[in-house]
Amino acid sequence: MSFARLLSEYWKNGVVMHQEHQLKMFLIVSKLCGCYICARGQSTAAAMVETAASRFKSVCVFCGSSAGNRDCYRDAALELGRELVTRKVDLVYGGGSVGLMGLVSRTVHSDGGHVVGIIPRSLMAREITGETFGEVRVVANMHQRKAEMARSADAFVALPGGYGTLEELLEVITWAQLGIHTKPVGLLNVDGYFDSFLALVDKAVAEGFIAPHQRRLFVCAADARGLLQELEEYVPVEDAVASRLAAEWKASEI
């Protein structure tokens, strides 16, 4: 089997390793395939690992219909959009053309990525004020919007936003806690925006309202590239209660 085929199978099977382990795997597979890599070639190997395909086909991004008051939020949305395209990951989002929603969707679409926007009919006049980007799915209500976004994505990212963003974020974290899904959830903590939220979660852990191991139900990073790498390496939290509930959720769907 060719090296390219082996590497493709490796990523397709969802194996997640830290970068130094990825490079070791690259070198081992190359040797097995009869490839010769000299010292100079190791930098090429590292570069190939760095740009290897993501294990996610699509990522759902929760973000504000406002752009915020500072350029750092806009810059973060643009950076996230570019990083998704670089990794060949589709964007799933709330379907609006305004605020951070509009910025990230426009960036992914203009850079050649695939965009799926999901929006309730009643919000179209409020959140779509100009050109839309990619595919737009119109649903009946907010519940359908969130369910469709969750179903269509392999991971979730929250950019800075308001009540709606926080509600969407907390719902997918709660679903992970209840065993409804094991998809990675990440916070893009732009200039410390989510610091107070993280402090609240830590307070809830300290006061006995959140189990310590459930603090790891989501990851956090200050930049898009770092956050997406955290999501790639995420291992679902083992929880006996969540596992039992997951079986019950599945049984109830049959």
TrEMBL record:
GO BP term, pick one: cytokinin biosynthetic process
Domain of life: Eukaryota
Catalysed reactions, as listed in the record: 9-ribosyl-trans-zeatin 5'-phosphate + H2O = trans-zeatin + D-ribose 5-phosphate; N(6)-(dimethylallyl)adenosine 5'-phosphate + H2O = N(6)-dimethylallyladenine + D-ribose 5-phosphate
GO annotation, cellular component aspect: cytosol; nucleus
MF annotations from Gene Ontology: hydrolase activity, hydrolyzing N-glycosyl compounds
Entry keywords, A to Z: Cytokinin biosynthesis, Hydrolase
InterPro entries with a match to the protein in the record: LOG, LOG_fam
EC number: 3.2.2.n1
PANTHER family tied to this protein: CYTOKININ RIBOSIDE 5'-MONOPHOSPHATE PHOSPHORIBOHYDROLASE LOG5, LOG FAMILY PROTEIN YJL055W
Role noted for this protein: Cytokinin-activating enzyme working in the direct activation pathway. Phosphoribohydrolase that converts inactive cytokinin nucleotides to the biologically active free-base forms.
Family per record: Belongs to the LOG family.
Record's protein name: Cytokinin riboside 5'-monophosphate phosphoribohydrolase
UniProt source species: Zingiber officinale
